[in-house]
Amino acid sequence: MHLAISLNIAAADKQAVLDFGEIKTFVRAAEAAGIDMVVISDSAEGLSSAPFEATTLLAALATVTDKIGLVAAASTVAHQPYNLARRFASLDIISHGRAGWHATMAQGSREAANFSRPEGFSDTDFRRRTAEYIDIVQGLCRGWDADALLFDKTGGRFHDPEKMHLLDHKGEFFSVRGPLNVARSPQDTPVLVLSGLSGPDLDIATRTADVILLEDGSTESAKIRFDDLKRRATAAGRDPDAVKILTNISFAPDDGPAATADRLETELRLKSCDGFNIQLTAHSALDDFADRVLPELRRRGLVREGYRGATLRSHLGLAGGGGQ
Amino acid sequence: MTAQMKLGAFLWATGHHIAAWRHPKAHATAGIDIDHYVQLARTAERAKFDMIFCEDAAGLREANVGIASQTSRSIGFEPISLLSALAVQTSRIGLVSTASTSYNEPYGLARTFLSLDHLSGGRAGWNLVTSASPIEAANFGSTGLKPHADRYERAREFAEVVSGLWHGKAPGHDGQSFSVRDPLDLPRSPQGAPVMVQAGASDVGRDLAACTADVVFTAAQTFEEAKAFYDDLKGRMAAYGREPDDIKIMPGVSPVVAETEAEAREKHEELQELIPDDVGVALLSSYLSISDLWRYPIDGPLPELPESEGMKSRQALVVEQSRRDGLSIRQLARHFAGARGHWRIVGTAAQVADELQARFEGGAADGYNVMPSYFPGELNAFTALVVPELQRRGLFRREYEGRTLRDHLGLKRPV
Q: Is there a domain that residue B98 lies in?
């Protein structure tokens, strides 16, 4: 199974805000435990008191970790697509192929109010706009062929102009010429994690996302949802295994390790998800999960030992990167 | 103690010389190598520089793909992510990045730079620019370039909102270009507010700087130009209730330094020889905001130019220099390709230090933004040769005294 750990940097109830040293310790502990990725939250609705914005935090964390995937939330209202693509392509290079972008299909009122869009978007406009936005970001990230850079000093050829491609996107909400002024990143495109899906978003998600985060529900409904999403991915011309479905589950230190392992095993064996995004009730619960639940899952052969590859895509069993 | 100059290390990919990447000792893969930047930042920090400085553009630098492919400037790190990585790999040096008011929103920019400020313990700065490039405009759905005055109107409003957010105000801002409802959801800056840097040298740009900037980055070839700019800008500050010392004026300087003058000249020539003619002319064209310079004989003089909507002040600088020195297009192209219109000094450590000291003590600069011709070689040469010479003369610090960028620059902490 694939395992993500949610890292909420905003101060939740009765929790102190983490400083960078504490966040580093937390992410390194998750790395030592062999977790696929941490999913870093950004601004919550309502004021948080976290001192960091997620993409800047990701860049810093990339320099103090080696293996673990690092996913940052970034709003499609707060950034222009060209700028967001530059940020994440750059983060992917800085992290040597471990970066992911967490986008939400749900519109936040706070972004609209602070980013000169006081009226917000209608739900259907926001949906179409987000779909267009994601296509632009992914297209821009593929603008440079993997072998475009030549570094030929004596010949005076830095790159091969034939291997740099304009996007020339002209859509309903954006027009973006490209190309990106950041090199192709180690994963080709940073891993796209989508959440906040409602019914009409499912086709967009299964067409574009690498990872879909879903709320926890009954095993039965989760199974139906999982099959439906994989079917949609196939219909979009993708390998159903190219979209990983992770279920958000909450974990508290006093949840019994065997019971938690049982629950995860059941959902996985019933094929109702590809893994889980663990939402800790307190940051300290990571130790309990790593020391008590993970060994049990490993004993049952449900979680791999250590990291096999170097990129987040390789951790997740996704294609892409490595000069393909 | 005598007054000490401020120094910035302007890091740009393979180097500031257009042919830098072709130099045998240049690190050609700089634009995809984070470790290279960590080394450069640490080198500058060991030399006690006030800050490292990064440029930015939201698009390619050069529209002609053939020209662009002969330079290393089409790819590089997005600077906010770069500096955020460097923030936790350094401990004292300031971290300043350029970001445009044309294609960002003030709330997001204020929030991002404040996050960088927290990551670095109060070492962040923002260099405000407006975007004059049609290449950038095409990446943001705009078909034409906005007139100079409109861009600055937006920039002024942008700067006001960012400054208000950094100072913890609840903006409730509903202006011409932006609306912002909430205060920032991050705690106050460890240095009161990130440092505000500006580079515009036009009349409207100078007024904006006089009103809002902590540091001004500028281009000046001669002492007289530098002095005139310095006096003009400091003279404008009183109207905004500010003291002259509230802004540090740091012109760009591109030094080429070696143990002997002959060696330095040889080093400089080696790079100049690596500039292809078409690349030099294209670069000159872009600074002049005209597209057809290649039509004119390369060994002839610069033609008469219409006033551009793009970079007004830069154009004037180039034209003035070409007339003054009677330079051909090729000569001018090579000259500008090397230092991008900034001041170049080629010589020994003592000669470079003499020149820097003369402008500093002559009231034409509070410090310099050092633009090494290629990396890492020329930054290493400056830190190994020139910095100790400046320190010996008492013109530059031997140790950091404070923790924040405001401390280094001797700027007041905002209340």
A: yes
Q: Is A79 helix (H, G, I), strand (E, B) or coil?
A: coil
Q: Which of B38, B78, B138 sits opposite A90 (nearest CB)?
A: B78
Tokens 């003279």 map to which residue?
B235
- Give kind and range of the element (H or E) at residue B214: none
In terms of pLDDT, which residue wins out, B84 or B320?
B84
CATH at B135: 3.20.20.30
Please name the member of A20, A44, A79 whose beta carbon is closest to the beta carbon of B119. Answer: A20
For residue B70, give its domain range: 6-261+339-409
In B201-312, at which residue ranges do the beta strands (DSSP E only) sit?
215-218, 248-257
Question: Given CB atoms, is B382 within the 8 Å cutoff of chain A?
Answer: no
Query: Between chains, do B185 and A179 touch, taking CB under 8 Å as contact?
Result: no
Q: Which two tokens stand for residue B139?
A: 């990446």
Integer distance in angstroms from the first to the last C-alpha of chain B? 28
What are the E-state strand segments in B258-383? 343-347, 367-370
Single-letter amino acid, residue A319 = A
Residue of A nearest to B20 (CA): A153
CB within 8 Å of B308: residues ≥ 6 apart: B288, B289, B290, B315
Nearest residue of B to residue A59, measured between CA atoms: B85
Q: What is the ipTM of this complex?
A: 0.96
The count of structural domains within chain B is 2
Q: CB distance A55–B141 less than 8 Å? A: no
Cis peptide before B376 (omega within 30 of 0): yes
pLDDT at B240 over 70: yes
Residue A166, min C-alpha distance to chain B (Å) = 10
Tokens representing residue A122 in the block: 């209608």
Are B121 and B252 within one domain?
A: yes
Instruction: At B12, list the tokens.
Output: 């740009």
Counting every residue written for chain A, the total comes to 324
Q: Does A146 touch chain B (CB under 8 A)?
A: no
Q: Do B78 and A52 touch (CB under 8 A)?
A: no
Q: What is the pLDDT of residues A141-183, one digit of tens each?
A: 999 999 999 999 999 999 999 999 999 999 999 999 999 999 9
